[in-house]
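[step 3/7] fold_predict: job queued, chain A
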Amino acid sequence: MLKQRVAKIIYGIVAFVIFFTIFLAMLWSPREHVQLTGQKDDIEKVLEISDISNSISCSVAEDGEISINGDDAYIIFNVDSMEAKTIVVQMNKTIDKNIDAQLFLDYGRGMNENDSVRGTCFAGESSIGFKVPSGKFKQIRLDIDDDYSFKCIEIHENDAITIRSGNTISYKILMVCFLLSGFVVFLIIFVDYKTNYLLCFYKKIIDNKKIIIIECGSIGGSIVVGWLVEHIICGENYNYAVHAFISGIILIICLTIIHRKILDDKPEIIFSKLIFISAMVMLISAPIGHIGWDLDSHFRYALQSSSFEDVGISEAELDVIINNNDFLEIPNNIDENNEKIQLLDGKDTSIVSYIDSDIRISSLLSGVVIAVFRLFGVSFFLTYKCGQIPIIIVYTLCCYYAMRRLHSGKMILATIAMFPTLLFISSNYSYDTWVVGFIFLGMAYFVGNCQEEGKISYKDAIIMVCSFAIAIIPKQIYVAVLLIPFFMPKKKMQSKKKYYAICSGAFAIMLVDLLVRTFSETSKGGDVRGGLGVDPVGQIKYILTNPFEYAHTLLDFLKDYLSLGNTNGYMNNFAYLGVGAKFIAIIILIILIFTIVTDKKKCDVNIYSKVFYGYSIVMFAGTAALVATSLYIAYTQVGELSIAGCQPRYLIPIIYPLASVIGFNGIRLKINQKVYNAMVLGIMQIIVLYCIYNFLIVRML
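[step 4/7] structure written:
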């Protein structure tokens, strides 16, 4: 008893320190502000209000007051062909909030992103300084999207002067962190008092002490042996990608041997470890750069979730979210990769801009890691990489608990969860695996309850419905999965009224959220990546006035989008690193069909109604049509006869809900379950390792 009390006290202290650190990291940053200015005696030219040659989407008053009245506002100055190293924009007065600015210089190539620099005028300041690329320019364009009071532009011939200002921590922040941490620890102690979960957790560790020690030894041994093999292959030039790959293979073999005896009854244990190790090897081995879909947006979400207030970001972080070439380009070998890491780490020393705080549930854990690493001054490279680990952990846990809830069909889940594309997505900043993972969990609770005798508990009903609801928070377009719980056989409900109330409440909330977001998105100008002709409102009018023409366009698109020939796009696609050979997708498809038909038991016989079978098919096709239509509205130019931006990966979240039930009663093979599970997991793991080598390791040699 005394040991348990001491253990709880230690646990409480550790928890307090952890949460205090987290709250401090999200309320305060030790980074310095950097302000650039020019030397007073080297001004080549001064541009004033009278020198403005053109203004777009803004009005310019004689006293310098500039009011924004449209999108992409800017003013242009013509200058004689001249060179400069520093340009400083001066305001008539200090500003009361941070203002971002972008300066374009025409070096004879027109205005373009590559010939532009960015800067921020921080609250309380009255100037913005820019380091200017070398070369002669003939025009200057200043982009600022907030109202401001313009005074002049100073063009300096010498390098900028850097002024740094520290960010001191206040007693108020420390007190808030202390109170919040204390409150969280109090809640932990209160829950433990009611449930005694800490004792259960402690006993579980003690009961599995031997296996934990063996696994830790396997991890350490794999790292050491992996380093020795890497040293033999690469010589004196250390290659962390090769080290991670070799260590991962050795660790997978070790853990498979350790857990081989429970592969028939509890395959989720080795399965979850395969998922985690494979994704971590991808994360570590991947080159630094824009390798995944929408990395700029998703990294921005993580940064916005790393602070309760406006987020001060470094130049390296800014490079990621604006797709600057210093981050955008993907290295072709380990030497280029190491040079890029050094470049980005060198640009991560201070705040150069601010973005609004916007905490998203799917990005919060990544944001916490980024905040803590920022607090301790960890390099950009390690912060960027480690910020992706929570994404892998959440996906792994969802897969583990989903498989554990099933009585059969576990290898159907394993096959889909181990799609190389899905593991690659989980190792990058993205909320796609959040969506997929929680849909796995919700569907597994639905299927698992249908497979067993007795009534569904309210606990299981809440977990199932909440999993579906949490899954679609980032992407409400998959709202159809929230209707799945309504197809639970009535004989399994303890109370139809309470059960349907649980299901209806979640569905109503998410449907309203979907409608609000849809209205918000369509009222905007659409996705600029689709081109100048993108107009959501105009596109909706086109669909409503030409329903048959659009129906023909949609069906024509879905014919190819849902075809078997498109499977490579969501099974063996590594985004900007390339698309793999089709034979890999064919093998995965064969395994998926095989498991759908054969991974069945007696508990699967006649457990679903014909209506639910029909709904599963309609939901799959209907959601695909809904996804395509949303991108036709938001991404495609008005009246186009094709649909732009609809990527194959958008089908992944709805594959398992269909695959888990479409096999009907199935075919039961007379084969040992351990052999069956080992065969499926083994083939899928070999495919994953092949893809890692082909897409990542080869590029990092």
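[step 5/7] annotate
The chain has a mean pLDDT of 89.
The CA atoms of residues 361 and 473 lie 8 Å apart.
exit 0
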